[in-house]
């Protein structure tokens, strides 16, 4: 059943006739029942959501049942865009445990793709056959007998899989859209190990498959204790000292555009918050200052940090850029606020900055405050994307 907030959102966006269905797993299951009878008795778990008001909504789901799990995505389009569904269906579908891998629901303007059929990540189709998997593994210089286990999947954007052989993890493989492959290759090789620091190294890449393999790093997620927050800051300082000349620049102008885009996204979801969001974005834009460029992780937070005891390991450099050091620190603090509501943000920022400075880094309090605010604004729509029932709050 739709929440009141989702129902109101769908009512406002009449351009997407299937939006209400995409936001309600039970309604979606009923609509798809005739096309995918195997969905009966399975539980649909939302895994991904990308919404562009008046244009599209792409939702990812995992269908869980006694026989295992299957991933699929559903795209809600406008009626005008739905006229192109004939082209969508032209490509031969795959045979999946749900049925044919492609289908449309014309009266709802919905297009459905069952994994590994992905409109943008076309190489994923090869994962269905043993020969296709071997071709990918061979292109990445990985053993032909290795297996791939899905870790994270963002439909039409990226898939992350672990490569195992005989129960031992060998590597991580990421599949990217064609236009993102070159940057992914460069970013994966931008950093090196340092004192107390281990980084996920690039092993190989294949433009043909849009795939990049990286080293598998073991360790536990860093616990957010006071001492560990300082360690994280010290480690980040060591990373920022590296060259990073090949990384794309993250200018203050791009950050201001990011703030404005997020304010618009908030207004699209909660019109009553639009004016306040624009005011916050404007204040953040005024507070952002040009500064010395450092080599940044780009998405620095606890899920990207592994505690290996004597050192800290950092993974996933897909968002790596050159920019203001405070970007990484502010992003970390903002993620902590979302991850652990009630976190003392001032204390968290102070401990992280203390470690950063003790590791030789330099960051000002105003810059850290501005970047923390920007990080919070960038995460403001996450409760909606994560399908929390009380997302407007």
Q: Summarize this, please?
A:
The protein has helices at residues 4-12, 19-22, 25-32, 85-90, 130-139, 178-188, 226-240, 252-269, 274-287, 326-339, 345-358, 365-378, 382-385; strands at residues 43-52, 56-65, 68-77, 95-96, 99-100, 102-105, 110-114, 147-154, 158-165, 168-176, 197-199, 202-206, 211-215, 220-221, 293-296, 305-307, 312-314, 321-324. By secondary structure, it is α+β, with helices and mostly antiparallel strands.
Tell me about this structure:
This protein has 393 residues and is α+β, with helices and mostly antiparallel strands. 36% of the residues lie in helices and 25% in strands. The protein has 13 helices and 18 strands. The chain has helices at residues 4-12, 19-22, 25-32, 85-90, 130-139, 178-188, 226-240, 252-269, 274-287, 326-339, 345-358, 365-378, 382-385, and strands at 43-52, 56-65, 68-77, 95-96, 99-100, 102-105, 110-114, 147-154, 158-165, 168-176, 197-199, 202-206, 211-215, 220-221, 293-296, 305-307, 312-314, 321-324. Strands 1-2-3-7-6 form a five-stranded antiparallel beta sheet. Strands 8-9-10-13-12 form a five-stranded antiparallel beta sheet. A hairpin with a 2-residue loop joins β9 (158-165) and β10. It starts with a helix and ends in an 8-residue tail after the last helix. The model has no long low-confidence stretch (mean pLDDT 96).
